Amino acid sequence: MNKENNNTSSKPKGYLTGKEVRAIAKANAKEIKRLEKYKNRNADEAEFLSQLKNEENILEIDNLHTYFFTEQGVVKAVNGVSFDVPKNATVGVVGESGCGKSVTSMSVMRLIQGPQGQIYSGDIRFAALDGNKKKVYDIAKMPIHEIHRIRGKEIAMIFQEPMTSLNPVFTIGQQLDEVSFIHNPEATAESAKAKSMEMLNLVGIAMPERVYNAFPHELSGGMRQRVMIAMALVSNPRLIIADEPTTALDVTIQAQILDLLRDLKTKIDGSILLITHDLGIIAEMADYVVVMYAGRVIEKGTVDEIFHNPMHPYTIGLQKSKPTLDSDSDTLYNIPGNVPNPINMPNHCYFKERCSRCTAKCGGEYPDMIQVSPTHFVACHIYGEEAKNNG
Fold first, then answer.
1. Rounded CA gap, 77 and 345, in Å?
2. Helix, strand, or coil here: 318?
3. Is 258 helix (H, G, I), strand (E, B) or coil?
C-alpha cells in the first residue's frame, strides 16, 4: 500500500494511471450516451422554440458550453460564451488559435464532430423566418434531424479552405444546384441553374457559364472562395458565418473578398459573424467585436471601443502584437507564456500566468463580466475593483 502511494505521488505531471484512464473513459461514456440520446430524440417543436431577449438581434448565444470528451479528460473548448449578433451588423470574433472561435461557429451550425464533441449546455437562439412568420429556435436544443430547417437555408457558412469544402468529383454547377434542390422542394433543373448563375454573377465571377461547368481543381483559390460564398447565398440566408474566409488567399484577393462580403451584407439585408485572428480585418469589417481567450469571452464591444479603448490586458497585448508602419522596434511584440492546458482548467482567471497586471485577487474565482458602457464589457478583476470603488 505504501509502495502504491509512493508511486502515485512521484508520477510525472500529466501522467495518468490505468485506473484513472478507465475512470475517465467510464465517465465520458456515460455523458456521451446521455447527450447523444438528447441530440437524437424525437421532440415537438415547442421544446426548441424560444424568445429573443432583444428583438433587434438575429442571434443570441447565451452561456454556451461545448466540450470534447477525450482519453485524458474533458476539453472545455467553449466554456460559457455569451454574445449577440444584431440585425444587419457584422460581428467579429477574434483571438489566438485554439481560443474557441471556430468551435463556437460550428456549435451554431451544429457541426461539432460527435460523439466525442458535444454541445453540453447553453442556449443558441436564432430568429428564423417560416414563410412570413418569425420563429425563434434554440439551436442547442433542436434534435439533430431538425437542424435542416435552418442550416444552409437561414444560416449559411463560408469555410476557411474552399478546396477541402468542395467535392472534387462534381462540377461547380452540380454542387450549387444541390443547395436549391435540398432547400426548395419545388426547384427544377432549370430554376436551380438560373439561381446558381445568378449567385455566380452576384459574387463577381466574370464568366459564370465556364465556372458553372468547371471542376474545383480548375479554379484559382480566389475563384473557389467566391464559389463558396455563392453557395452560401443560394438560399437567401439571414446570417452568414465566415470562418477565416481569407486565410488561404493572397493579399490582393483577400481585399476583393472582404469588399465582396461588405457589399453582400447590404444586398441580402442580413448579418455576418466573422471569425478571424487578423485584427486588421476586424477593424475594417466589423461593427462589434468579441475577444475570446481559452474558450471564454474576455471582452466585447463596438469596434471603436475595442480598438480605441481596449481594457483587458489580453486585448491590449493583441493590439501590441499587430505590426505597424510607425513602430520604432524591429521586432514584433509577443504575449509571454502559453495558453493553459484546456483539460482541467483552473478556477481562476485563465490569463493570470501571462498577465503583467496580475494582482492577488486574480488567483481567486474567475472574474465576472463587468459593464463599462452600454455596449462595452470586460472580464477582469482590475475593473471589478474600480467599479466597486466608484460605486
1. 10
2. helix
3. helix
Kind plus residue range of the DSSP H or E element containing 108: helix 101-109
Strand partners, 242: 158, 274
- The count of residues in the chain is 391
CB-CB contact of 318 with 94 (8 Å): yes
Q: What is the pLDDT of residue 96?
A: 87
Residue whose grid cell is 463556437: 104
Cell 466574370 sits on residue: 206
Cβ–Cβ contacts within 10 Å for residue 200, how many? 27
Closest CA to 129 of 89, 87, 158, 91: 87
CA gap 151, 171 in Å, rounded? 22
Angle value at C-alpha 65, between 242 and 120, nearest 5 degrees: 115
Over the stretch 20-36, which tens digit does the pLDDT of each residue have? 889 999 999 999 999 99
Q: Provide φ and ψ at 213, rounded to 5°.
A: -95, 0
Q: Is the CB of residue 91 less than 8 Å from the CB of residue 306?
A: no
pLDDT grade for 301, boundaries at 50, 70 and 90: very high
Report yes or no on whether pTM surpasses 0.85: yes
* 57: its cell numbers: 438581434
What are the backbone angles phi and psi of residue 46, rounded to the nearest 5°?
Answer: -60, -25
Number of H helices, E strands in the chain: 13, 12
The total of other beta-carbon atoms located within 10 Å of residue 69's CB is 22
Rounded to 5°, the CA angle 379-93-272 comes to: 135
From 109, 176, 138, select the one nearest 50 (Cα to Cα): 138
Residue 105 main-chain phi, psi, to 5 deg: -65, -40
